[in-house]
């Protein structure tokens, strides 16, 4: 299937897609804008958009578990390995976890310290 001149919408800019494909196109545009903003945030502040979201959730719910953050974000807990506060980023340096005997690769609960 190829794009034809008669497939152009009345405004001459885009082909008519229908409700579903038009929604998917807009969703794609939102995703692209979020990724671009996240890239700029990382260059400017040293933290990506998804990392900032995790920091904000942890700040809203002191002591929240990494598993609960994953539930809120609708992701598998193993996907949080690169997000603060499990790794040191400039914004996550104010986070601390109480000492525990478990593996240091796991983030049990998230706590904020005063600076």
Low-confidence stretches: 85-96, 99-106
Number of helices: 3
Overall structural class, as computed from helix and strand content, comes to mainly alpha
β-sheet strand percentage: under 5%
Tell me how many strands there are: 2
User: What is the radius of gyration?
Assistant: 21 Å
> What is the first-to-last residue Cα distance?
60 Å
Share of helical residues = 40-55%
**What sequence of helices (H) and strands (E) makes up the elements?**
HHHEE
Please list the strands of the largest sheet in the order they lie side by side: 1-2
Which whole number gives the mean pLDDT?
76
**Number of self-contained structural domains:** 2
Shape estimate: elongated
Main sheet? 2 strands, antiparallel
Features:
mainly alpha, two-stranded antiparallel ribbon, 2 domains, 115 residues, 2 strands
How would you characterize the overall build of this protein?
The chain is mainly alpha-helical and 115 residues long. It folds into two domains: 17-46; 49-115. 41% of the residues lie in helices and 3% in strands. The protein has a two-stranded antiparallel ribbon. It is elongated, with a radius of gyration of 21 Å. Mean pLDDT is 76; it is low at 85-96 and 99-106.
Annotate the secondary structure layout.
Blueprint: H1 19-45, H2 49-60, H3 66-73, E1 95-96, E2 111-112
Antiparallel strand pairs: 1-2
Describe the structure concisely.
The protein has 115 residues and is mainly α. The protein has helices at residues 19-45, 49-60, 66-73, and strands at residues 95-96, 111-112. It folds into two domains: 17-46; 49-115.
């Amino acid at each position: 299937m190829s794009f034809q001149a008669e497939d152009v919408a009345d405004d001459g800019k885009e082909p008519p897609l229908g409700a579903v494909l038009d929604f998917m196109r807009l969703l794609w545009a939102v995703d692209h804008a979020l990724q671009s903003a996240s890239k700029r945030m990382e260059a400017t502040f040293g933290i990506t958009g998804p990392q900032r979201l995790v920091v904000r959730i942890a700040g809203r719910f002191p002591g929240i578990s990494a598993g609960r953050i994953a539930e809120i974000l609708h992701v598998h807990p193993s996907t949080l390995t690169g997000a603060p506060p499990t790794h040191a980023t400039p914004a996550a340096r104010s986070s601390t976890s109480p000492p525990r005997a478990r593996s240091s690769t796991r983030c049990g609960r998230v706590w904020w310290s005063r600076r």
